[in-house]
Amino acid sequence: MEFLVDAAVWFIGLFQKGAETFVGLVTGIVPLVIVLLTAFNALVALIGQERIDKIGEAAGKEGFLYTPLRYLVLPVVSVFVLTNPMAYTMGRFLPERYKPAFYDAAVSFVHPPLGIFPHVNPGELFVWAGIAQGITAGYGSEETAALAVRYLIVGLIVIFIRGLVTERITAFLLARRVAYAA
User: Fold this and answer.
1) What does the buried/exposed string (b/e) look like for 76-113 if buried means 16 or more CB atoms within 10 Å of the residue's CB?
2) Distance CA 146, CA 113 (A)
3) Could you write out the DSSP letters of every residue in 103-139?
4) Tens-place pLDDT, residues 55-80
5) pLDDT in tens, 101-132
6) Can you give the pTM of this predicted structure?
């Protein structure tokens, strides 16, 4: 009989803990994410969607000078302005041969800015929060902010490298496809 009582207490306790977590989200991160999304939508309205679209068009130009624009600036602007998953739509301005590399860079950047800008990928914010809590247990928010900045910098380096590597792989595979078609 005691087993059933313990099971019932555990069962309702599980839902009570879930409710506590939900209330914490509603009073904590949810308003923050809504305010950040509003701020970035206002920023886009001030800058103008057409100007942001021009960055995408410029990134599709030929030449090595446009590579950082294509695999660093465009993914960062896309993630900050459009957030996940809409950020990937900025690839529409690129020629087909650059789209896989842009997507690789953009999808790799939806996590690194979370510690500083949680609006970019609110669905994954809990992953960041769990990592930050585990790493900075017993430390203050200054250490968490330092971790977030390092995470962001590493993310920028990684997306640029991934964009370059994926562009080369795509070019190789496209050349192979053309060779087989002939």
Assistant:
1) bbbbbbbbbeebbebbebbeeebbbbbbbbbbbbbbbb
2) 12
3) HHHHHHTSSGGGGT-GGG-GGGHHHHHHHHHHHSTT-
4) 878 888 888 888 998 999 889 888 88
5) 999 999 888 888 877 787 788 777 777 777 76
6) 0.63
